[in-house]
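ok trying this again, last paste got cut off
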Amino acid sequence: MATGTRRQEQEPEQRGAGGEQSSQSPLENGIKDGLTGPEAPVNGRQLGDGRRQGYLKYVDEEQLARGLGWFSIGLGLAELLAPRGVARVAGLRGGTGLIRLMGLREIAHGLAIFSQGRRPTEAVWSRVVGDALDLACLGAAFASPDNDKGRLTFATANVLAVSALDVLCARQLSAGDGTERAERGSVPVNKSIIINATPEEVYAFWRELTNLPRFMRHLESVTWTGEGRSHWVAKAPGGSVEWDAEITEDRPNQLIAWRSLEGSEVDNSGTVRFEQAAGGRGTVVRVELDYSPPGGAAGALVAKLVGEDPDGQMQVDLRRLKQVIELGEIVVSDGTLLGEGYSEQRPAQPLGVGVGG
């Protein structure tokens, strides 16, 4: 078996047929930080940019617009029917006529969102204008010594948070097309890694699906049910989720494709490819997954924000797979600083680069 993949990823491609060295480095060939593909970050700035783009990927602007519509109607009714209570919460003293007018405006925004169909772009932009008016009124309220400054600050912070959602939704509605909406309906995952083993060895390990919980830390169990079908149990917030899947394509030592069966709690499909690395130095494992999380787009966005999205999980799981196949176990050291130790594997890198930056 060849030398370890850490050395493979650091060395440039060595000589072709004429004995000359390749002019491309591993980074230029798309191998970055133990991963392959242009999506792999090579410094902290790129990682931060990728995360910001990742948040937008999980936002379904149509669902968010409907949520903002219900929020407008609910807030508007509160301002219209209980203006004194709203004023007290916001720290305002004096008349309630302006609050009632704001309530009517909020109700109008909500009704406009629902009346404009699936993509209420104009109605959401009108909410942005309304947010600006609310902020202007709150700013003016700070000038009055009779108002409660602490509650005013709290109310202003809440309006700013809602304004950020309104602007995000309005921009997505304005810029998105049908293809982008389809992509945001599910979570795409595309990760790769080089493992110091032959394609036959890696394929055989993965093809025995009961091995998957050994390196996929969110999987509790995978059991065969016959005829290429299997039953999966995975950890989820507040419990676990289960689904049945079937293998749709199986090319020994090359590719395994699967999809979940109809009615599953978790809708997913994907492929894993096993390719000989350049110069016979190990196997490139490429995983492509299309995943629709429980809770839809909102659940996917929350998972992304707390670091539990499928894209990040797969990156960690592939590093664990590499250790299981190459070393027979997942190595934990005193230098493992993230999360629960071995469950958060990452390659060594200078301070300020990658997840630890």
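PB: full thing came through this time. The mean pLDDT is 74.
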